[in-house]
Structures are given as structure tokens and as C-alpha cells.
């Protein structure tokens, strides 16, 4: 091929297409490690469909990948160099988002929290949120506390996950919601939630007002028009029409053609603790219920108590080590030192602690007037418990694990899966205990770890071997944490049988090659459990998944927790796991855990435990409002036929667009000396890099993983340098012969027009206005007058070719065609912008009518009152004259009020119209774009 084709392919690869088209997303889609489904591409396109819109609400059901949808929008912004991006998420999801961005989208991020914020301030940063080339991730509470700093950044995109936390923003006393709404006003926002409507239609008003304040009128008018409506069918239809452009929701049942869901099967392994274990549990439970505890810092007592109860339920080994930390703290207190507890055994403690302290900056303050006698007495108690814990060498739950594993493996083999299991625990010490236990019982050498640090000898060896295997294939990212995870997952996939993981194993990794999950410790947070199971029960899982849970039959509270998670949340059986209604009703999983912790803390008898859990179940039932479920279905969910047609179209367009994009990249690399590698049905290319190494690149990330190739991305230095060279090369007009005989493809147009020849001109039209976009404009005049469309010109430029002499001067007909084609493209952009403008005008007109409706509603109510008073007056002949005159006087005053209100309404309506016109004028200013034309090349051609 020729350098002219190299330039053509380079232009196609970097062309900034309209972001609302699938072709516009192709660049972002081709460079991410995500197995895209059509509903995700469809949702991403919905979010970017109009450059005038200020955002969207993506409300797909649980498990459909809203993170992927948002990630695509984010990746598109990133590719367009719009890199001021803020992610506001629940504290417990910050690391998961960071991991997803890094591993799936290759985008760097920074966690903005108290420590990093203060460090940046000390280092001289005026505003720590001003970050270059990295997404900023922070929690809701932290963002609300730093609303001043956030307001002063011109964000290109703000993504808010679990956005239902803001659905009460319409209430003036919702401080956090209103702070964020005001701080982010005018910024483009993407809200993600599976439960946009839980209890009240006002929640829809609240969420849409965060995205765009001009979708509906004010809160009072919305309440009058929709909440108080007496005809729900008409109300729902009107709401559906108004939300059509701002909210999209897809259901799991609508995507089964594209996403294969396997089933979940639950195995419950009950056990009875030994006498010593029971004694230890009761002692520590009683200790935690003591009014005054010196070992637990007062400001963190609730959190630490919850963690201690979880460690106590995990194993005697887990609680034993933590008891030593409590003892050390008391020893220090007797010396006048207030030391911090070591809670590192609980892998997610720092995350919980940060979430807990997000409401205000936590500073531990030492109380220097300790009650020495109380401390000594508490120290004696803890020493006794520690001795008891040390004397316990085996746990009943551990012994039962051996039985449960065999049962699970048998079930998995019956279902066609591999003998592999992920065992989840909340304690690193329990992790070590299970390693010893399983190694001594037939699994020696088959076990690996995954936790927050992975500094054990087995992990270190796996990591070193992994680095050697991948030293020259580009898989080493340089981030030890990410590479350690990759090494452990690869070891588990290829060699090991059992992965023992803490919560770190439940974040950001895909284990769909494994279908047995063991919840050795069961979190109280349903979202955590769903996340754990989702590591295996996910897209790409070919087998049914088995979930093993453990239950202490003697513990009444444990029994009720399991019933709640199993029956109310439906976590362990069926196809889809937890339902939106239930999972959305708990708002925050951490808060739900604290609610359960309170029950453990305050209940001392079985009767009290049963009563408290009955009350908790009633609370959950109250949150699941059947009328609201029906309203949500009617307002937000499209008919299956409509969704099916849309997704089918999206699927075919995505495949075509990505295929075309891959073809351009393939040809571009072949021109630069790459060789096609077997198997030829995969996009594999061999070439030498800058450092002289020969490497195999792959344009498909799944094939790259399977073959051990490097996944080719735009950020590759060699790729970037070649693109830059091609785009800056001067190309004088030449004659090119295209060799159709050498082409392996059969193209009927060229068969029917043998020996086609003529002149082709390619220009690039760059538009900057409400959105930036570029178009290649093809103008071709053939010698025999044959009309050649853009698709055939693209096909011609992909043929084998060689330069063969001079190009004749441009003809008058070619110059005229260029002008016409460029004008047509400009007109097309203008027409699309007109449609965006009309859509926005319709929205603003509806908004204005809402406000006017609110004004008229008050007037109608006053007129109704006057009519009633007049009727009473006409029937008042039996009343004393004084009362009649008083009633007439009241009617006259009300009538004066009506006239005054009528005048004010005219004035208010004028103000509303003026506001509407002002907003439309602002949009018209944005529509005044600028077009630049760059001539790319002129060639004469013949096809031989």
C-alpha cells in the first residue's frame, strides 16, 4: 500500500466523529477491556445523544453493568481530551471504581479523601481537586464537605454512582444533596441507580433536577400536577413523555438474547461450636455490651464493636490476635499513652473507618484522667479471654468446611464446572488458619491467597514467576497491586484449586472460570455478598454457580441474619440474585450492617433478638412500596418489543463499526511492516518495537488474553508515533493504481465497473460549536461519469496499490463537486443542530408551562373559594344583617385579592416567557459554530 493510504487510515482512526453516533464511540470501545453488550452501548449513546443536554439518568436493573455504561461515556470524554472528570460514589465503592477504570479502561484516577486533600494543600495546591490526566474519585460525604472547591472546577463530566442517595434533594433540609446540586450546577452529569423511584414520585423530580432544573417546574407544581393526580394512567403517561429524553432503563429479562445467565444453587452448612468456642463467644459478647470500655476509642466504638463481632464470628484465631491489640492499648493507657488499635486483620477496616468519619474530620483526643481501677479490671478480663482464645486449636466451622468443600466440588462437577473454589473470609488470620487446615487435609500446594497486601511467601513467589513469564509481552503494568492481582488470578485459573480471599478478592477481578463460592464468613452487607458472588456469577460464566454458606445453629441472631439475606434479599438462589426493590431499599450497605450490629449489641435474650429482627423486616417491607413499583414500571420501563428492536439495531451497528475500525488499524499497521499471524481469523500482528523486541499485538482484548498477546491501544508509543508521522506528511497530488485482482474480497461494484478511473479529492471538515466533530468529505469524478459513493471509495482505498505518475490538474467539475459536498456536510450538521435546538426548546416550553400552571392553579383555587362564598351569601337571607354585611365584605376582599393575583400572574408569566427566551437565546449562541476545511489529498486513480 501507499503513504496516501497510510494517511487515509490515520485520519479515519483519529477522526473526531459526532459523539452521539456508534462510530463516534468506536474509538473508545476499541480500546477498552470490556465485552460490550448492546444495551450498554445503547445506554452510553443515550447519555451523549445531545450536546445541549446537561446529562442523563441511567437506571438499568442491578447486574446489567451501569459501571461499564458510564465507563464508555468517560472513555469517550477522555479520548476527546476532556479530562476534568469527577466520580462521586459511596465510600465502599471507591476502590472498586478505581480498579475498574484502571483494568478495563486504562484510565488513571486519584482518591480524594481527607489525607490526600490535606497533603495536596500542604504541598501548595490551591485546589486539590485540580488534577491533571486523572479522574478524581471521592465519596458523597467528602464531596459535600468540599463543595466550595468542587464548584470552582469546570468539570467536563461528573458521574454519580448509587445516585438514589440524592433522591430527597427536593427537600430543603437535605443538606448533602443540595450542597452537591448547587456545587455541580451547569456541569454535565451522569447519574447511575437501579432504583430511581423507591417511595415517592418526588424522588424522580429530585434526581432530574440535579441533572437539569428545566425538565419540570418547581417542586410545588410537580407535586400538584403529578403526586396529587387523581388519574395515575394519564399521570404516568405524561411523566413518561417528560422523562423520555433524560432517563433510560433496561431490564435483565430484555437482554437475555445477548447475556446468558446461569443459575445459583445454595448449600447451607450448619455447625455447632465447641464448648470453649461458645464460652469465648459469650464472654466477648458480654464484654462488648459493657457500658464503659477503655480499650475502644469512644468516637469509633460503634465501628470497632461491629468489626470485633465479625472477627469473633470468623474464627477464634481472628479474635485472638485482635484481643492482643486491645490489651496493648490498655497497657499503654496505664502508661499515659493513647495508642491506636491495630485493626489490620479486617481487610476493609480503613474503608469502613473512612466512610464512618466522612461526616466530620475525626481527631482522636486522649482523656488524661483515666480510671486506673477500671482499666486494670478491663485488662484482667481481656487477658482471660485471650488465654481462652489461645487454648482453642480447632474450630467447628473449619472442620465443617472440609465436608462442605467436598459436597460443593461434587455438585460443581455434576453441573459441568471445574474443581475450583473461592473461599471468602473477612479476616486475614482466618485466611492463614484455613491455609493450614486445608493444606493438612489434602489441598497442600493447591491453595493461593488474595488480600489487601499479599505479602505472604506463596504470593511473592507467584508474583516473581508471573513477572518472568510476562517480562517482554507488555502485561506488566508497573502497579504492584494490580500486577499482584493479575498474577494470583492467572495462577488460580491455570494451576491452583482454591483461592482464599478477603474482601480485596471481591473487587475488580473476574473469576468466571470458577463456579464455587464459599462464604466462610457471611457479611451483613447484602451489596458485599452480591459483589462476592458476582466475581463468578457474571457475564461469561458457562456453568451454574454453587454458593456455600455457614450457619451457627446455636446463635439466634446469626440464624435471623441468614434468613434475611437468603429469603428477603434472594442472594443465594435463582438466576439474578438480589432484586432491585430490596437491594435499593437499604440505601447504604454499611448503614444496614450497623443496624444489624445494633441488634447484636443491645439484645441479650433470644426473645429480644427475634423481636428486633421482626421489626427490621417490617422496616424493609415498608420501604418496598408496591404502588411505587408499579409506577416505576409504567413510567420508566419500555415495551419489550421496542427495546428488542433497538438493541438488535445497536448490536449490528456496533459490530459493523468496530469491524471497520479494526480494519483501518490493521491496514495501517501492515503498511508499517507488521505481519499477520496465525490464526488468520483473529486480529493478530507481529512487529518489532522501538527497543528491538519482536512482539505480537492483538486488536481484540479477549483474543489477546487467550493467546498471551499485547492488547493494542492508541496509547502504545509506537502506534502514537506512526500516527503522528502519517498525519503530518505532505502529500502532493499523484496517480495511484489500485489492484483489484490482488484483492481477496469480492466486491460486486468493481466487478460491474472494470477499469474504473477518475480523480478523488478528500477534505476534512472540522466543526466547533455546541460539540466538536470532524468529517472526511469525499469528492470523486470518474471518466465515464459513474457515481461512486463513499462506501465504495473507502473500499477502493483498502485495495493493494502503488503510485504510478503524476495526477492531472483538478477539473472544474471536481472543484464544483467539492464545494457542493462540503456544503452538504455543513447543512447536515446544521440540520442535526436544529433538531437538538428544537428538542431543547420543547423542553423549555414545557418547563414554562409547568410554572404557569402552578400560578393558574392558585388562582383557580381562589376563584373556587369566592364562588363558594357567593353561593353562601345568596342563601343567607335568614342571617342577621351584620353577618351578611361581614360576609359581603369578605367576598369583596377576596375579589380584590383575585384581581391583584391576576395582575401578578400576567407579570409572572411575562417573567417566565422572558426567562424562556433568555435560555433559548443562550442555546442559539451555542449553536453558532465554526467550520474549518483542511485539504487532505487529491489523487487520480484507476482500478486494474
UniProtKB/TrEMBL annotation:
GO MF annotation terms: ATP binding; helicase activity; hydrolase activity
Protein keywords: ATP-binding, Coiled coil, Helicase, Hydrolase, Nucleotide-binding
Residues annotated as domain Helicase C-terminal: 404-617
A Pfam cross-reference name: SNF2-rel_dom
UniProt superkingdom: Bacteria
Signal peptide residues on this chain, from the entry's feature table: none
Family annotation (Gene3D superfamilies): P-loop containing nucleotide triphosphate hydrolases (3.40.50.300), Tandem AAA-ATPase domain (3.40.50.10810)
Keyword Transmembrane helix applies: no
Coiled coil start-end: 815-929
Domain Helicase ATP-binding as annotated: residue spans: 47-214
Protein's name in the database: Helicase conserved C-terminal domain-containing protein
Amino acid at each position: 500500500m501507499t503513504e496516501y493510504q497510510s494517511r487515509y487510515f490515520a485520519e479515519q482512526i483519529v477522526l473526531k466523529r459526532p459523539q452521539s453516533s456508534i462510530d463516534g464511540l468506536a474509538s473508545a470501545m476499541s480500546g477498552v477491556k470490556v465485552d460490550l453488550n448492546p444495551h450498554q452501548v445503547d445506554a452510553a449513546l443515550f447519555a451523549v445523544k445531545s450536546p445541549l443536554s446537561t446529562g442523563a439518568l441511567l437506571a438499568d436493573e442491578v447486574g446489567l453493568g451501569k459501571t461499564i455504561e458510564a465507563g464508555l461515556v468517560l472513555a469517550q470524554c477522555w479520548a476527546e481530551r476532556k479530562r476534568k472528570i469527577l466520580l462521586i460514589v459511596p465510600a465502599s465503592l471507591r476502590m472498586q471504581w478505581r480498579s475498574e477504570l484502571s483494568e478495563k479502561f486504562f484510565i488513571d484516577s486519584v482518591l480524594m479523601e481527607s489525607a490526600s486533600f490535606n497533603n495536596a494543600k500542604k504541598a501548595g495546591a490551591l485546589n486539590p481537586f485540580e488534577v491533571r490526566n486523572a479522574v478524581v474519585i471521592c465519596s458523597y460525604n467528602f464531596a459535600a464537605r468540599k463543595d466550595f472547591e468542587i464548584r470552582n472546577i469546570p468539570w467536563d463530566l461528573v458521574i454519580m454512582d448509587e445516585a438514589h442517595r440524592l433522591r430527597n434533594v427536593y427537600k430543603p433540609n437535605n443538606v448533602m444533596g443540595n450542597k452537591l446540586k448547587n456545587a455541580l450546577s451547569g456541569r454535565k452529569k451522569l447519574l447511575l441507580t437501579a432504583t430511581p423511584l423507591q417511595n415517592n414520585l418526588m424522588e424522580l423530580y429530585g434526581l432530574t433536577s440535579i441533572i437539569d432544573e428545566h425538565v419540570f417546574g418547581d417542586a410545588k407544581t410537580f407535586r400538584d400536577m403529578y403526586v396529587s393526580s387523581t388519574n395515575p394512567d394519564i399521570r404516568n403517561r405524561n411523566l413518561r413523555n417528560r422523562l423520555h429524553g433524560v432517563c433510560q432503563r433496561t431490564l435483565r429479562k430484555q437482554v437475555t438474547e445477548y447475556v446468558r445467565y446461569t443459575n445459583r444453587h445454595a448449600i447451607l452448612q450448619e455447625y455447632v461450636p465447641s464448648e470453649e468456642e461458645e464460652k469465648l463467644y459469650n464472654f466477648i459478647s458480654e464484654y462488648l455490651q459493657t457500658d464503659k470500655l477503655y480499650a475502644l476509642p469512644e468516637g469509633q466504638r460503634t465501628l470497632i464493636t461491629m468489626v470485633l463481632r465479625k472477627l469473633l464470628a470468623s474464627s477464634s484465631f481472628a479474635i485472638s490476635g485482635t484481643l492482643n491489640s486491645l490489651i496493648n492499648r490498655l497497657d499503654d493507657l496505664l502508661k499515659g499513652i493513647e495508642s491506636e488499635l491495630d485493626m489490620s486483620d479486617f481487610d476493609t477496616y480503613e474503608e469502613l473507618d473512612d466512610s464512618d468519619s466522612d461526616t466530620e474530620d475525626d481527631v482522636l483526643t486522649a482523656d488524661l484522667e483515666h480510671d486506673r481501677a477500671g482499666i486494670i479490671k478491663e485488662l484482667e478480663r481481656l487477658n482471660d479471654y485471650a488465654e481462652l482464645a489461645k487454648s482453642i486449636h480447632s474450630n467447628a466451622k473449619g472442620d465443617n468446611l472440609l465436608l462442605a468443600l467436598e459436597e460443593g466440588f461434587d455438585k460443581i462437577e455434576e453441573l459441568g464446572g471445574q474443581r475450583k473454589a473461592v473461599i471468602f473470609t473477612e479476616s486475614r488470620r482466618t485466611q492463614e488458619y484455613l491455609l493450614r487446615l486445608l493444606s493438612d487435609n489434602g489441598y497442600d500446594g493447591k491453595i493461593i491467597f488474595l488480600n489487601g497486601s499479599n505479602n505472604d511467601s506463596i504470593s511473592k513467589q507467584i508474583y516473581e514467576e508471573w513477572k518472568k513469564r510476562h517480562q517482554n509481552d507488555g502485561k506488566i503494568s508497573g502497579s504492584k497491586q494490580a500486577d499482584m492481582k493479575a498474577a494470583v488470578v492467572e495462577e488460580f485459573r491455570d494451576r491452583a484449586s482454591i483461592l482464599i480471599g478477603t474482601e480485596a478478592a471481591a473487587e475488580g477481578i473476574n473469576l468466571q472460570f470458577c463456579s464455587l463460592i464459599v462464604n466462610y464468613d457471611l457479611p451483613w452487607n447484602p451489596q458485599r455478598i452480591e459483589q462476592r458472588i458476582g466475581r463468578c456469577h457474571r457475564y461469561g460464566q458457562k456453568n451454574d454457580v454453587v454458593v456455600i454458606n455457614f450457619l451457627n445453629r446455636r446463635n439466634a441472631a446469626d440464624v435471623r441474619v441468614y434468613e434475611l439475606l437468603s429469603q428477603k434479599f434472594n442472594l443465594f438462589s435463582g438466576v439474578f440474585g438480589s432484586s432491585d426493590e430490596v437491594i435499593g431499599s437499604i440505601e447504604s450497605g454499611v448503614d444496614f450492617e450497623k443496624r444489624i450490629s445494633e441488634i447484636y449489641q443491645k439484645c441479650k435474650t433470644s426473645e429480644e433478638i427475634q423481636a428486633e429482627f421482626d421489626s427490621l423486616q417490617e422496616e424493609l417491607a415498608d420501604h418496598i412500596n408496591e404502588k411505587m413499583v408499579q409506577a416505576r414500571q409504567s413510567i420508566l420501563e419500555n415495551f419489550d418489543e421496542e427495546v428488542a428492536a433497538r438493541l438488535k439495531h445497536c448490536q449490528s451497528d456496533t459490530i459493523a463499526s468496530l469491524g471497520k475500525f479494526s480494519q483501518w488499524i490493521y491496514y495501517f499497521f501492515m503498511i508499517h511492516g507488521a505481519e499477520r499471524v496465525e490464526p488468520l481469523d483473529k486480529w493478530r500482528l507481529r512487529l518489532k518495537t522501538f527497543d528491538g523486541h519482536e512482539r505480537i499485538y492483538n486488536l481484540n482484548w479477549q483474543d489477546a488474553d487467550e493467546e498471551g498477546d499485547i492488547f493494542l491501544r492508541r496509547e502504545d508509543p509506537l502506534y502514537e508515533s506512526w500516527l503522528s508521522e502519517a498525519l503530518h506528511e505532505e502529500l502532493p497530488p499523484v496517480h495511484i493504481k489500485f489492484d483489484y485482482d490482488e484483492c481477496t474480497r469480492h466486491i460486486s461494484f468493481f466487478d460491474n465497473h472494470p477499469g474504473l478511473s477518475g480523480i478523488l479529492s478528500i477534505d476534512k471538515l472540522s466543526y466547533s460549536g455546541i460539540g466538536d466533530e470532524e468529517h472526511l468529505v469525499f469528492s470523486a469524478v470518474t471518466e465515464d461519469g459513474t457515481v461512486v459513493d463513499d462506501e465504495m471509495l473507502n473500499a477502493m482505498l483498502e485495495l493493494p496499490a502503488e503510485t504510478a505518475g503524476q495526477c492531472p490538474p483538478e477539473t472544474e467539475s471536481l472543484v464544483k463537486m467539492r464545494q457542493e459536498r462540503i456544503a452538504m456536510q455543513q447543512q447536515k450538521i446544521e440540520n442535526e443542530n436544529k433538531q437538538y435546538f428544537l428538542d431543547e426548546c420543547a423542553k423549555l416550553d414545557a418547563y414554562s408551562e409547568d410554572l404557569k400552571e402552578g400560578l393558574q392553579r392558585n388562582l383557580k383555587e381562589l376563584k373556587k373559594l369566592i364562588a363558594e362564598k357567593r353561593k353562601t351569601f345568596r342563601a343567607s337571607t335568614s342571617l342577621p344583617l351584620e353577618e351578611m354585611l361581614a360576609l359581603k365584605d369578605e367576598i369583596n376582599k377576596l375579589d380584590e385579592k383575585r384581581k391583584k393575583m391576576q395582575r401578578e400572574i400576567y407579570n409572572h408569566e411575562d417573567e417566565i416567557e422572558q426567562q424562556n427566551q433568555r435560555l433559548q437565546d443562550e442555546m442559539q449562541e451555542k449553536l453558532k459554530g465554526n467550520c474549518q476545511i483542511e485539504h487532505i489529498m487529491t489523487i487520480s486513480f484507476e482500478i486494474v
